[in-house]
Amino acid sequence: MTVREWLRDRVRPATLGERGEQVAARFLQQLGYTIITTRQRNRYGEIDIIAVDDQTVVFVEVKTRRSEEHGRAAEAVDSKRQARLTRAALAFLKSHGLLEYAARFDVIEVIWPAGERHPTVRHLQNAFPAVGKGQFYN
Q1: What's the average model confidence in pLDDT over 59-76?
Q2: Which one of 21, 27, 45, 131 has the largest count of C-beta atoms within 10 Å of its C-beta?
Q3: What are the extents of the domains in the chain?
Q4: Alpha helices in 3-120 (DSSP H)
Q5: pLDDT digits (tens, 9 = 90+) for 94-112
Q6: What is the average pLDDT score of the chain?
Q7: DSSP letters of 30-47?
Q8: What number does CATH give the domain 15-128?
């Protein structure tokens, strides 16, 4: 068995969602954002990408799909998901002493048809407000 065969059998290939998150992070960097972290987990949930745009902390949910046959990918970020992201973002801001900074929620749609080398990327800035009572102030 060659090293390549051994690695192929043991290293899990990136899922479509993981590849979409990588594309989204590179896309944001090309726009001048600074990526703070990816796949940030806390007891409230996971945030795909946390970035900084000027003086704003940006929490990014990435939705990757093969097609838009069943609707836009951003539609999957429903009110329940928004509430979970809000709680996770607030916990992140509190734990890092960033409550005094502006924050927003963006959604990035990555449409990557099978067999295509390059996906289509759509960036929805300020995609939804913080959900819940007393969560964030504008």
Answers
A1: 90
A2: 21
A3: 15-128
A4: 3-10, 16-30, 79-95
A5: 999 999 999 999 999 999 9
A6: 89
A7: HTTPEEEEEEEEETTEEE
A8: 3.40.1350.10
